[in-house]
Amino acid sequence: MSPAVQPPLVLVALAPGMREHACEELIRRGFYAETVLPEQLSDLTRELGASCILIDFDAAIDTLPHRLFNRAKDPVPMLVFASDVTVAAPIAQTDPQYVDVVARPCDWDDVSLRVTRLLETCAGWNALQRAQRIAHMGSWKWDPESDEMQWSDETFRVLGLEPGSFIPCGQTLLSRVHDEDRALLQEHLRLAVKSGKAFSLEHRVSLPDGNTVRVRHEGESCGTDGFLVGTIQDITTQVESIQSIQQLANVDSLTGLANRRFFLERLDQAIDDARRTGQLGALLYLDLDQFKRINDSLGHRAGDVLLRTVADRIIRQVREHDDVGRLNQFEGGYHSISRLGGDEFTVFLPNVTRRSDVEQIAKRLLHALGRPIEIDHREVLVTVSIGIAMFPSHAEDAETLLQHADSAMYFAKDRGRNNYQFYDDSMGTEALRSLLLESNLRRALPEGALSVAYQPRIRVRDGTVCGAEALMRWNDRELGRIAASEFIPVAEESGLIVPLGSWIFETVCEEKRRLNNDGAPPIPLSVNVSPAQFVRDDVEAMVTHGLRHHGIEPSQIEIEITESLLMQQDQSVSMALHTLRAIGVRIALDDFGTGYSSLSYLTQFPIDTLKIDRCLVRDVHSDPNSQGILRALIEMGHSLGMVVVAEGVDCVEQYEILKRLGCDEAQGFLFSQAVSIDDFRQLLHHSFDD
Predict the structure, then answer these.
(1) Phi-psi region of 136 (alpha: psi -120 to 50; beta: other; left: phi over 0)
(2) Considering 61, 254, 336, 522, which has the largest number of Cβ atoms within 10 A of its Cβ?
(3) For residue 105, cis peptide bond before it (omega within 30 degrees of 0)
(4) What's the Rg (C-alpha) of the chain?
(5) CATH superfamily of 439-683
(6) What is the pLDDT of residue 50?
(7) In this structure, are residues 511 and 677 in contact, taking their beta carbons and an 8 Å threshold?
(8) Least confident residue range of 28-42, 103-117, 144-158, 374-388
(9) Residue 330 reports pLDDT greater than 70
(10) Could you say which DSSP state residue 300 is in?
(11) C-beta of residue 89 within 8 angstroms of C-beta of residue 114
(12) What are the φ and ψ backbone dihedral angles of 410, each rounded to 5 degrees?
């Protein structure tokens, strides 16, 4: 058997002479009724869970708030008894869904019908109010003639106001609209009144607490009475969610810049605009030099810090030239600047009038990005290569413009990095060649296309051979002989330098063993080791294995490194070098005098040999300043206990000056180009001073 349904509770707060009679009449008609004093209503309505209230007009005016609420926090309807209905009618007009007025004396059947109608109306209205509360959507009705309005509870809440706290009007609604949006809503309301045109718009609402919310406002005419009805919905959360989704879809989460997809989309639009207006544009393609080395050696967190710093510096430099760049910002990002991925960035400059404007920004970027970056209390140096393609002279669509800027960037890398290059048609051919070189280089080892050549180092005091530098040579079956200056950068960029470096070290150890077995003098052979090998490979294991496997004394192998390795200030690199030095392997610093030469490197790391770059030797026989620099370097090297080697010695005059300056060793075409191991064996007993 189903439980009995509890009849609705009606609280009767009429005058003393009517309370009991009213209860009897209501109970007789199926209601559950209790008498209460008017001043008890505020507490008992919620406590007893009342469904309806009967009250005298005077008490309703004097003792009650505008509304009373039950346990479900729904407003409780009131039937107001009045001797003069016309006087009491305004109280019903303020809240018609919850208040009705009946004349006294009354017909109790009519009272029963009115109570039933109030309960039914309020049940539906309360359900609607709950739905509106869930949806943050309020409803309203407006009389343009009197400016009077009726608001649902949620309309009050959307506007940041207490439900039922005052009688609303049109001016009240407009006063809550953001100053910049008010005229727009007024115009839509005017058109709706004048022509019956429905409207839907989004605008901002200024809340009493100073915050701002975004609402969707809709309205239309409700017929011939001239009233307008409408809804107002708080869509702040929806807008923020959409913006968050757009942010995720369009923005690089690490730097806040536009991502590749969004940048290319905006680049298409920018090119369309430039084409339509006849303006010029420039695309700068930036790629950090040696970023992978830094990322691998210092860790990904340090790499992230570096990328964020680079992004900030790019924004700052381009923003300072906003008359050229005209940055467009969206939700914290810039769609004229992007991080395409990894360590690649792009900048699009619209409205360019002169090529010199673009060059100025490129130079500023090189300078700004070349400054040291502090990461975990250490300074990291990074440079950037920049490729530039102009619209429309280099390309007339986004995809081609990006390709050409990319080609120009690689051309800048080939020119020694840390520079910018404008695209020209020849670069397309060079880009294709780079791809071909990488592809062919991957098969060079298994095909036996690589070999080792040795360029002798000469002892200056007597002209005898005292060592040699091992150099990799590549004779491709398709392209022929490829210069090391062309394929080594490709190997470093592609990561192939690691297996190639292991191969040449193993080959040098094997050929050194053969020289020893043939009774050759125990001179050292030097092998270049790339910074990438220290980062991605175990150099200590490679060296010790090679020496042990071939029975080579450690002192007969010298490792040549460059300053770029020492610039990393990586503890693991320092430990590896000290470990190799401890077992007897010699360490040479190659190409000294170029790049970021620092005397501190010479004291911090175990350097045995200082190899002075050919650029400082080239003019020593014709430029007194070059002689002075060379003399200072030689004396400094000797004071630190190092052997000093001059590279690029190509004429007798240079050689004679080196003798006078006290240089220890010399290397260059004056003595020999790099030769095979068999030809090198023939040079071992030759004196170049004869």
Answers:
(1) left
(2) 336
(3) yes
(4) 43
(5) EAL domain (3.20.20.450)
(6) 78
(7) yes
(8) 28-42
(9) no
(10) H
(11) no
(12) -65, -35
Q: What are the tokens at 549?
A: 């496997």
650-659 burial by CB neighbour count: b if 16+ within 10 A, else e? Answer: eeeebbebbe
Enumerate residues 6+ apart whose C-beta is below 8 A from 419.
366, 385, 386, 412
pLDDT bucket at 131, cuts 50 / 70 / 90: low
* Tens of pLDDT, residues 56-65: 887 666 655 5
Give 425's pLDDT tier (boundaries 50, 70, 90): confident
Residue 666 to residue 319: CA distance in whole angstroms? 51
H or E element that contains 205: strand 199-206
d(CA 473, CA 450): 6
Is the Cα torsion angle 186, 192, 194, 197 positive or negative in sign? positive
Half-sphere exposure of 199 (CA within 13 A, CB side): 23
33 pLDDT band (50/70/90 cuts)? confident
**Which two three-digit tokens encode residue 630?**
């060379």
590: nearest Cα among 455, 419, 685: 455
Span 294-323, mean pLDDT?
A: 81
Domain locations in the chain?
Answer: 9-131, 136-234, 254-424, 439-683
Kindly state the helix (H) or strand (E) to which residue 230 belongs, with its residue range: strand 228-234
* Greatest CA separation for the chain: 142
Q: Is the pLDDT of residue 138 over 90?
A: no
How far is residue 293's CA from residue 532's CA, in Å, rounded to a whole number? Answer: 6
pLDDT score recorded for residue 535: 75
**CA 571 – CA 216 distance, rounded (Å):** 59
pLDDT at position 334 is 45
Asked if the domains 136-234 and 439-683 are classified in one and the same CATH topology, the answer is: no
CA distance linking residue 370 with residue 420, whole number of Å: 13
Q: 3-state SS of 423-476?
A: CCCHHHHHHHHHHHHHHHHHCHHHHCCEEEEEEEEEECCCCEEEEEEEEEEEEE
Alpha-carbon distance of 650 to 653, in angstroms, equals: 9
Which pTM does this prediction carry? 0.50
| Topology (CATH level 3) of domain 254-424 | Alpha-Beta Plaits (3.30.70)
CB 263 within 8 Å of CB 340: yes
* DSSP string computed for 525-570: EEEE--HHHHHHS-HHHHHHHHHHHHT--GGGEEEEE-HHHHHT--
Whether 9 contacts 34, CB under 8 Å: yes
HEC profile for 73-126?
A: CCECCEEEEECCHHHHHHHHHCCCCCEEEEECCCCHHHHHHHHHHHHHHHHHHH
H-assigned helices in 583-643:
599-604, 614-617, 624-639
Amino acid at 386: I
Task: With H, G, I as helix, E, B as strand and everything else as coil, classify residue 510.
Answer: helix
Q: How far is CA 270 from the centre of its chain?
A: 21
pLDDT one-digit tens code per residue, 553-588: 999 999 999 877 776 666 788 889 999 999 999 999
Among 281, 541, 463, 296, residue whose Cα is nearest residue 388: 281
What CATH number is given for 9-131 in this structure?
A: 3.40.50.2300
How many angstroms from the chain centroid is the CA of residue 329? 14
In the block, residue with structure tokens 């959360």: 237
Amino acid identity, position 189: L
Determine contact, residues 572/535, Cβ cutoff 8 Å.
no
Which range among 23-27, 239-243, 519-523, 536-540 shows the weakest confidence by mean pLDDT? 239-243
Mean pLDDT score, 285-291: 90
Strands (E) located in 317-402:
329-330, 333-334, 337-341, 344-352, 373-375, 378-380, 383-391
Q: What is the per-residue pLDDT for 96?
A: 66
Q: Is the pLDDT of residue 331 over 70?
A: no
Encoded tokens for 147: 């400016």
